[in-house]
From TrEMBL:
It comes from the Bacteria. This is Arsenate reductase. SUPFAM superfamilies: Thioredoxin-like. It comes from Szabonella alba. The lineage of its organism: Bacteria, Pseudomonadati, Pseudomonadota, Alphaproteobacteria, Rhodobacterales. InterPro entries: Thioredoxin-like_sf.
Amino acid sequence: MSVPDVIRHNPGCGTLRIDLAILRAAGSAPVVIDDLAQGWTRPHLQDLLAKGKRLA
């Protein structure tokens, strides 16, 4: 099972439409998260940092 692409989106940014078109053309069905409505959680940030350290 593959992990879906996730895009954190600021509704004021016009670039998302281009990014979504590229991902969809590649066969992806990305999940779009409204950054202003949902924001970042501490556990999510800690998970991203941990993953980054493993990749470094």
